[in-house]
Write a structure and sequence with these properties.
185 residues; alpha/beta; Rossmann fold; seven-stranded mixed β-sheet; globular
Length: 185
């Protein structure tokens, strides 16, 4: 599965692990994959949009743009519905005793200034030896400075930090994306 490729992992690496996918999208395909293929039953998805919807953008005759949410009827049958939490990544609604082996953020950071808050919130839910994996990260992307800053701060607080290159590859894109792995010791 391409999602796993972006994080440099295989399904076997995730077997029976507690997993959180932050910024999963309204139909969390990665968590659905994990549940359907019995990789783990401890996989959860978080996104700020309501579960099982689709965004559709429109332009009016007056050139005004707007977006509407439409529910997807088939999404209500997905296993991941029971594993989905609607929340912001920097304000996770879990009990602080909840811990995960792996937390993923795939294309879920933006240049809105919440990068440090989101990462600090995520690592609070890592169990000892757990990892936060963030990808794809572009060397010239808007979040790269904020990521280096928070990674340095976490390193000083005992986390191991690893930047991996050439993990995430895209057709027709010359620049290879990076993968950031933050591990709680």
């Amino acid at each position: 599965m391409w999602y796993l490729d972006d994080f440099g992992l295989t399904a076997e690496d995730l077997k029976d692990k507690a997993i959180l996918d932050i910024g999963s999208g309204m139909v969390p395909g990665f968590v659905e994959y994990l549940l359907q293929n019995k990789v783990t039953d401890k996989a959860y998805a978080v996104d700020h949009w309501p579960f099982g919807h689709e965004l559709e953008s429109f332009t009016t005759d007056e050139d005004l743009e707007y977006t509407e949410l439409y529910p997807l009827k088939e999404a209500q049958k997905l296993q991941s519905k029971k594993h989905y939490v609607q929340a912001e990544g920097q304000k996770l609604p879990f009990n602080k005793d909840t811990k995960f082996d792996l937390i993923f953020m795939r294309a879920s950071l933006n240049d809105g200034g919440e990068t440090q808050e989101r990462i600090e919130e995520a690592v609070a839910y890592l169990q000892n030896g757990g990892e936060l994996r963030i990808a794809p990260l572009w060397q010239k992307g808007p979040d790269i400075k904020a990521l280096h800053k928070v990674a340095d701060k976490l390193h000083k607080n005992g986390f191991s930090i690893e930047w991996k290159g050439d993990i995430v590859k895209r057709e027709n894109v010359k620049e290879k994306a990076l993968l950031l792995v933050i591990k709680k010791k």
